[in-house]
Amino acid sequence: MDPTVAAAVADAHRRDWGFVLAATARITRDLDAAEDCVQDAYAQALAAWADGVPAKPAAWLTLVARRRAMNLIRRNDTLSRKLPLLVDTATLPGPDDGDAAADAIPDDRLRLIFTCCHPALAVEARVALTLRLLCGLTTGEVASAFLVSETTMAARITRAKKKITAARIPYQVPPASELPDRLAAVLDVVHLVFTTGHTAPAGPSLQRRDLAERALDLARMLRHLLPSDPAVAGLLALILLTDARRHTRTTTDGRLLLLAEQDRTRWDRVEIDEGLALIRAAMKRRPPTRYVLMAAIAAVHTAAPRWEATDWQQIAGLYDSLTQVWPSPVVALNRAIAIGEARGPQAGLAALDELAAEPQLAGYHYLPAARAEFLRRLHRTDDARLAYHEARLLAGNAVEQDFLTRRLGELDG
Amino acid sequence: MAEYMVFIWDDEASWAAADPGIVAANQTDHEDFIARNAGALRGGNRLHRGETATSMRRGPDGGVAISDGTFAETKEVIGGYYLIEAADLDAALRIAVQVPALFGGVEVRPIWTAS
To answer: Over the stretch A301-320, which tens digit does the pLDDT of each residue have?
Structure first.
């Protein structure tokens, strides 16, 4: 096979899957049938594009997938109504076909993501459907991202699709009155995909770049489709500003580097500038929402040329605001760490100890890790050692476990 | 359009202990709900208390065991239902969210239709 064609199809798969599927689902009114038609269109592209890759691959693929969908529908109608078969014998479009039609194809990806992230579906199902239908991941890829077997994931996806059909979850962008809540559910899914990619919950590597990149794609897509929504801008900014540090989070041999140790000159300036521009605009809208505030916190880190120059007072203040709009134990934990950096380890420890009984933080390794850090600075070595041991026991991925082992070694050194 | 069953799950102990004013207000709330959603309502009833329920299970030997009480032993029991018609789940939820269920909540289930 021509490697240029294969690369073009792979590229179109990555970039356009969600667009093609969303446009096809509008015709099939059935997600399984739409997936089959889209899969078939990509398979045809592998052969057809040998004569030239179309100028607008998404339009070409949509044309082919929708034509197949129309045929399926006619055939089904025919079978049920016993009317003569109306066969579409048109040949595949050429490389230039689809250009004119491209502008006429409505972008249905918002409908699709609102259906995938409907609150009537379980959160795991929302994530799985989004990765599969919007990003074109296979069931196996989705399963490995969330550490379940392919069989389990396949069952989860099937169950979710059945519910969409049986309960008639609409293929629709919600009305303005319901949009903020429904959009929040969508943003949470994209954020969850990003955090799972940014710091893998288990496994040998700290990051799952494939997932982090998909989340960035999804956030960019939402920004494109809802350009004036500050919550969307906030999430995209948060992802950009966090992702900008991706090359500096481990040493070349895979050792974890904390924010304090990272080479800030190697942070991605292009992503930072894009994120800062978004956050400046979003912060002007009052009151700032959850992801806007989280992005603002990331922006303060970005603004410091060195760790020591971090404006912790400002970060602690932003965490206060975040606690107001998003009171969660994890936010409280980060707020406590900011307090410790701003006002000293004793104050930080006191803030952390208020969270000791929080059931949602039981088993969360960042809590004992943060305690250990403040205890170390207070020269309470024995207490620090215990806390590091506890954190290492709870940490999921090997890079973080190794970091905690080194910290323990340094205590005894 | 599709039909949905809206089950009202409520805590009977809380109702038993409730002030008569609250009970009366609940009656009015249901009347208001029915008046507001007359176009979508296809049926609905209040049920007697869970202690009046009789449950029957087929045993492994093929015989039927009859028992006193509701099928599931939960704090909330089904106290009533509405059958509604709606275009899709979002429309159904917009109606169901108005159903009074002071000490519990509602469950919305699509009605099976043979296709």
So the answer is: 999 999 999 999 999 999 99
Residues of chain B numbered 56-95 and touching chain A (CB < 8 Å): 87-93
Inter-chain CB proximity A168 and B93 less than 8 Å: no
User: Would the CB atoms of B90 and A166 count as touching at under 8 Å?
Assistant: no
State whether the Cα torsion A308-A310-A315-A316 is positive or negative: positive
Cα–Cα separations (whole angstroms), residue B47 to A147, B8, B10, B101: 45, 10, 11, 14
- The Cα of A168 is separated from the nearest Cα of chain B by a number of Å equal to 5
- Residues of chain A contacting B6 with CB distance shorter than 8 Å: none
Q: Report the number of distinct structural domains present in chain A.
A: 2
Q: Is the ipTM of this complex over 0.90?
A: no
pTM of the model: 0.87
**Which contiguous run of DSSP H or E holds residue B55?**
strand B54-58
Single residue among A102, A117, A134 that ends a domain in this structure: A102
- Give the 3-state secondary structure of residue A187: helix
Q: What is the CATH number of the domain that holds A63?
A: 1.10.1740
Q: Tell me the sheet residues that pair with B10.
A: B77, B104
Q: Are A352 and A371 in contact (CB under 8 A)?
A: yes
Is the distance from CB of A341 to CB of A311 less than 8 angstroms? no
Q: How many helices (H) and strands (E) does chain B have?
A: 3, 6
Geometric angle at alpha carbon B35, from B101 and B25, rounded to 5°: 45
Query: Bridge partners of B4?
Result: B84, B110
Burial class of residue A284 (count of CB atoms within 10 Å of its CB; 0-12, 13-18, 19+): exposed
Q: What angle do CA A48, A54, A55 make, to 5 degrees?
A: 175
Among partner residues B89, B109, B112, which is closest to A169 by beta-carbon distance?
B89
